[in-house]
From TrEMBL, chains A, B:
InterPro entries xrefs: 6-PGluconate_DH-like_C_sf, DUF2520, NAD(P)-bd_dom_sf, TM1727-like_C_sf
Protein name: DUF2520 domain-containing protein
SUPFAM superfamilies the record matches: 6-phosphogluconate dehydrogenase C-terminal domain-like, NAD(P)-binding Rossmann-fold domains
Domain of life: Bacteria
Residue ranges occupied by any DUF2520 domain in the UniProt entry: 122-245
Pfam families: DUF2520
Gene3D superfamilies documented for this protein: NAD(P)-binding Rossmann-like Domain, ProC-like, C-terminal domain
Source species: Winogradskyella poriferorum
Length: 253, 253
């Protein structure tokens, strides 16, 4: 049985808590948060605390806190030589205080408090300072049914950047399509199957191979008509930049 | 039983043929293509022709041909007052020769010849010049198990533009993430669940509500670090423009 103590109460902390709680080979030993009221409603199912001095022994302490709090919280931990991990995509493993054994447990996914999530489909990026802890970290991911990938800090920061393109920027393109279609009283539902299929297609085909459309074909007539249709200068700039990017990828200049 | 004749042999034509062929209330009467060899392998299951004068009676003639060929092919049809539809997202219904009754049957989805597609999940955008044909067009979509939406030409052109943002541009963001992660020897598979979840999230939440990340939070430190990480000037420009767009949407300037 693996014992885990969670620190923090953001989206990742909540999802991790639920996932560990449901994992049969894991016990959540304690849940710490500076602001007690954020976790108090869980007091009947786990030992909830707001005082670091009350932290008991656990196989791993997982800090799911904001990037800026990781270094200071790791310094404030009142013990040494135990295993401490953070869950951030962008913070170096060396930002953790070296009085403890250090690790990273970064679940690469978008977390919202409301959205239900099948945790077992989330890839976990793992890093350790002590090689001996690598297998333990893999076992921990495995206990959640997740695939684990050994990823160093530089790669992890690159993944975090890639995730901004894939999640935040993609979502903004959805938003722009929503604005454009709303302006003509079009039900956004019509576009939802296309959103799904666009994502599904690259699960077993490279994005390069999956590309279609006027930019890929260098269809100047359609591109010109689209630019005439777009009312917002901002949307026009995005259309032009991404069209140029597709053309460059597919060798039109 | 509805009889359908298909004209053309592009991706949409192939997928439509397969979908109509499998629909129990539809018979594919004939399949016409100017270049016979493109459809000759279907000769044993449907009447394949390359001569317009051989076209027989059908309830509807669906032209799934390139945008530029629609007007000329509709003029070349050797009959009058029958129901003729095109499948384009951007061509006006009035580009069809008015000697026939005109309609549009636009399946809003991305089509690749190789990718298997569940046709019943595709929204069909319908337009007619004769109101009496509206129900027939709906029945035709229904025969494929598809949802039908009455969409006029201007709305359809807006949908086509929106689809470029949602499909082509989103796919290019996947491509950029692929390039960025490849450069650090990262397995692209790690990013695939995030691609799916990003799409899934907006199936029951607006893109506005679904947004997360550094631009949404106006997290200048992370944005600055990301810009430093990006090696290509082109990717940097895209990062900056989409970050500014998200900030604008969420009221940071």
């Amino acid at each position: 049985m693996i014992t885990v103590t969670i620190l923090g109460a953001g989206n990742v902390a909540f999802h991790l808590y639920k996932a560990f709680k449901n994992a049969k080979d894991v016990t959540v030993k304690q849940w710490y948060n500076r602001t007690y009221s954020d976790i108090s409603s869980y007091a009947n199912e786990v030992d909830t605390i707001d005082d670091l001095s009350k932290l008991e022994d656990a196989d791993i302490y997982i800090m799911a806190v904001s990037d800026d709090s990781i270094a200071s919280l790791s310094r404030a931990l009142p013990f040494e030589n135990r295993l401490v991990a953070h869950t951030s995509g962008s913070v170096s493993i060396h930002d953790l205080d070296k009085k403890n054994q250090r690790a990273v447990f970064y679940p690469l996914q978008t977390f919202s408090k409301d959205a239900e999530l099948n945790f077992s489909e989330i890839p976990i990026c793992i890093e350790v300072t002590e090689k001996a802890n690598l297998q333990f970290m893999k076992d921990l991911a495995d206990a959640l049914g997740c695939s684990a990938y050994k990823i160093n800090t530089e790669q992890r920061q690159t993944l975090h950047l890639s995730a901004v393109f894939i999640n935040n920027f993609t979502n903004q393109l959805y938003r722009i399509a929503h604005e454009i279609s709303d302006a003509k009283s079009i039900n956004f539902d019509i576009l939802k199957p296309l959103i799904m299929e666009t994502a599904r297609k690259v699960q077993d085909m490279s994005p390069y191979m999956a590309q279609t459309g006027p930019a890929k074909r260098n269809d100047k007539k359609t591109i010109k008509r689209h630019l005439k249709q777009i009312e917002s200068e901002e949307h026009k700039a995005i259309y032009e930049l991404l069209t140029a990017s597709i053309k460059k990828t597919h060798n039109y200049r």
